[in-house]
Amino acid sequence: MKKIVLVAVLVALAPLGSAHAAPPPASSSLLKTSKDIDGNNGIRPFLGASGHLDIANVTPAGGNKLVFGLDYLLGNPTGLNFVLGLHMGAGGRAFLLYPLLEVHYRFALPIPLVPWIGAGVGTRVAFARDQSVHFALGFRFVAGADYFFTPHLGLGMQLAVPDIGPLFTPTTVASVIGTIEWTLGPHFRF
């Protein structure tokens, strides 16, 4: 008899327990659209690879490197953004520093995916193993996409094709170098 009463009490109280359960906070749920992304600025650390467009013109300021760095985005999650970046690379018997400035246009979609296109300019400084220093300008066209899981956290990918520009040193004759660059990393909005 005690077992029947205990089961009856539990069955009677079960609906009350579910009625008092608090809904999960809105920030923990998955996003529905790109308009749900928050923050006026963003930081995007990344890791990737770059390769030469012209294998016959291999230079330490060019590609074939493991690339890593940080981009700082100034602007809303969608629309026009300015990007300050420091890209670094190791490989091809050189270490590359590549500070750059880019302008992106980020598209709003009815899903939390934000595709974008842009262009930029930067200065490549490569420190070669033979102790020479190579300077080159880089002009780049970029495209990418960020998928946001929460209003402040996403995962992004970028492709720079081509990234070309004149090489100034160590030779006095300017030549053109070019690379393709692919990167992947988290995107934090704040």
Characterize the structure shown.
This protein is mainly beta. The chain has a single domain (32-189), classed as Beta Barrel (Porin). It is 9% helix and 60% strand. The chain has one helix and eight strands. The chain has an eight-stranded antiparallel barrel. Mean pLDDT is 84; it is low at 18-28.
Highlighted features:
single chain, 190 residues, mainly beta, Porin, 1 helix, 9% helix
User: Given this structure, which CATH class is correct?
Assistant: Mainly Beta
Largest sheet, spatial ordering of strands: 1-2-3-4-5-6-7-8
CATH second-level architecture: Beta Barrel
The SS-based structural class is mainly beta
Q: Quick one: overall form?
A: elongated
Largest sheet: 8 strands, antiparallel, barrel
Please tally the β strands and state the result: 8
How many alpha or pi helices? 1
| CATH-assigned fold name | Porin
Rg from Cα: 25 Å
Classify the beta-strand content into a percent band: over 45%
Report mean pLDDT, rounded to a whole number.
Answer: 84
Topology:
Elements: H1 2-19, E1 41-52, E2 65-74, E3 79-91, E4 94-106, E5 113-128, E6 133-150, E7 153-169, E8 175-189
Antiparallel strand pairs: 1-2, 1-8, 2-3, 3-4, 4-5, 5-6, 6-7, 7-8
Quick recap:
With 190 residues, the chain is mainly β.
